[in-house]
Design goal:
Elements: E1 9-11, E2 17-19, H1 22-26, E3 29-32, E4 35-38, H2 50-63, E5 70-78, E6 88-97, E7 101-110, E8 113-123, H3 141-154, H4 156-160, H5 162-168, E9 172-176, H6 179-183, E10 191-198, H7 206-216, E11 238-249, E12 259-269, E13 272-281, E14 286-298, H8 300-310
Antiparallel strand pairs: 1-2, 3-4, 4-6, 5-8, 5-11, 6-7, 7-8, 9-10, 10-12, 11-14, 12-13, 13-14
Helix pairs in contact: 2-7
């Protein structure tokens, strides 16, 4: 996989090439009375991708915002597994609205069953004190692309990993800092870093750009808590799913350009794992912070070994 050359395409039933238009997928349609319809997206498996629900729900909440406020945070819960083949209905309720801040609740449903709940907060841009933790890695995406190509040429397990094909079907390019943590199966320290950007430019709309980052923030994230245990999402050794997800927007991103998503897992236990991370632009400016707790329930022999070790 050469990330700079990955095409933003997928193939239909007859083999025709079709473009994945992520902004169109995320664009919710108002149906009146605070209700919105979100279309289905690029299916990478039978379950609805959590990042899609977050981004669509955020844009639904943005439709209710008629002033200068921008979303500065969101807190989401995944209540039930949604279907990737169906659209989602969103209901937006305004909980509070003042001169500087507004808070809105978003509820997502499929076939009358609520699968998703989120509260988003909006804030008028203001002048204030500022500081930010510097990026924990070199901000050199060209070096990361070169390292990925060399790693794939010399490592057979990269080509055998099913995630390679799945990533090529996503509308967001991904280049890992450590290819082994992404493609490999060995135990690793619970931290990763990936470069991300849109395959096709989406334009400068600040609301859409924040939605695009929200979509991307659920990619390559929950694996951090699994890395020390030599498992990855999709393994038969674990049942994995996102439980809740939070994003704080510090700046408006330009996701048409590269952003570094530096992530780590400070804790795992009781069949759950905690993940957190920061997005940095190419200049090292921190633009967003993300946190998530995930289900990582051991299965089969992995569960048996843990039980034996406990006894």
């Amino acid at each position: 996989m050469k990330p700079e050359n990955c095409s933003n395409t997928r193939y239909g039933q007859e083999g025709e090439q079709t473009t994945i238009d992520l902004p169109a997928i995320l664009a919710v349609r108002p149906t009146g009375g605070g209700l919105y319809e979100g279309p289905p997206g690029p299916a990478i498996g039978p379950r609805l991708f959590g990042g899609q629900a977050i981004a669509q729900g955020l844009l639904a909440a943005c439709h209710e915002e008629n002033g200068e406020r921008l979303p500065h945070s969101l807190h989401a819960y995944f209540l039930k597994a949604g279907s990737s083949g169906e659209g989602v209905s969103y209901r937006v309720t305004t909980l509070s609205e003042g001169r500087s801040f507004a808070t809105r609740r978003v509820e997502g449903s499929q076939e009358g069953t609520m699968i998703f709940s989120m509260i988003a907060s909006f804030h008028v841009p203001e002048t204030g004190f500022g500081h930010g933790t510097p990026a924990p890695a070199d901000l050199d995406v060209a070096a990361a692309i070169e390292a990925l190509d060399k790693w794939r040429e010399s490592n057979a397990q990269a080509n055998a990993s099913p995630i390679v094909d799945r990533l090529q079907k996503r509308p967001i390019e991904i280049v890992p800092l450590d290819p082994g943590s992404l493609f490999g199966a060995e135990a690793r320290a619970p931290r990763t870093g990936v470069w991300m950007r849109m395959r096709e430019p989406a334009g400068p709309d600040p609301l859409l750009q924040r939605a695009l980052l929200s979509y991307a923030s659920d990619m390559m994230f929950l694996r951090n808590a699994m890395l020390p245990h030599a498992i990855r999402p999709g393994s038969s050794k674990v049942q994995a799913a996102s439980l809740d997800h939070a994003v704080w927007f510090h700046e408006t991103p330009d996701f048409d350009r590269w952003h570094l998503f530096a992530t780590e897992s400070p804790w795992a236990g009781h069949a759950r794992g905690l993940n957190r991370g920061h997005f940095y632009d190419e200049n090292g400016r921190m633009v967003a912070t993300v946190s998530q707790e995930s289900l990582m329930r051991p299965r089969g022999e992995a569960l048996d070994r843990l039980r034996e070790a406990k006894d």
